[in-house]
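Let us practice reading a record.
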Amino acid sequence: MTMDRERVLRTAAALLARKSTATMDEVARAAGIGRATLHRHFAGRDALIRALEQLGIQEFEAALDKARLDDDAASDALRRLITEMDPAADLLAFLYTENQLFEGDQINEGWARLDARVCDLFRRGQQQGEFRIDLTPAWLTEALYALVGSCAWAVMDGRVAKKDFQHMTAELLLGGARRVEK
């Protein structure tokens, strides 16, 4: 039986996003492959998580590229970014909530590069007077990740309609990030 690696990774991401404690046996069953086949491609849970991390970096980088962060107002670019993050929201939610797996001596340079791009978007919005300056770009970046993750969880649990993901995430973040003249 041949294994479609990307399909297995996406299946694993969907399962782990709903049940982060799922075993390799459960992942194999969900993917419709045998445990031995899964272990031939991913020596263990750590190898699977690392592969999911790489997929997450690729998905997020593609979303950043498609969002054209340097075009238009920063808030418009942020809305585009949230729209582009939507298809990978489950995977990104899992990776964000499991970020302790990636801490330590070897933080992936990919995440640092992606964080820098998002921080630059918030910094641009601050410099142009669009976003609050009392909240750091790093904090606004973390708030974006947390909201994407929280909304993805709510969609998975059926508490939020999938069609509302983009609107709810953007409006809550922008409602708190926008600079209000007094």
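A brief commentary: The mean pLDDT is 88.
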